[in-house]
Write a structure and sequence with these properties.
60% of the residues lie in helices and 0% in strands. It has 102 residues and is mainly alpha-helical. The protein is elongated and about 55 Å long.
């Protein structure tokens, strides 16, 4: 189902949309719909990323465990190189280092 929405665009933006649409063999309407859809997909992905990060943070607060950055980096680097590596182990954080960066 579709519905009509009216947008007031600055003349310069409208001209840019028309130019880009023509160069891509699309109508300005099709280009705007694709662009809006892409922007919304990106926004939803950012929201999921932030929600996942918040959930991980809350989990670390509940469990009292964290992963050392150097252990995670070594694991990811090894896996990206095709090397089987053991997963990093969760540890209790050093209370003196909480809130600081190493």
């Amino acid at each position: 189902m579709t519905s009509t929405t009216s947008l007031k665009l600055p003349d310069a933006l409208k001209a840019t949309i028309a130019q880009v649409a023509a160069s891509e063999g699309k109508t300005p309407h099709a280009l705007m719909v694709e662009t809006l859809q892409s922007a919304m997909d990106d926004a939803l992905e950012r929201q999921r990323f932030h929600a996942d990060g918040e959930a991980a943070y809350q989990d670390s607060l509940r469990s009292g465990l964290v992963y050392r950055a150097q252990d995670v980096k070594a694991y990811i680097t090894a896996r990206a190189s095709g090397v089987q590596a053991p997963r990093p182990q969760a540890v209790s954080p050093d209370p003196e280092k909480l809130g600081t960066q190493a």
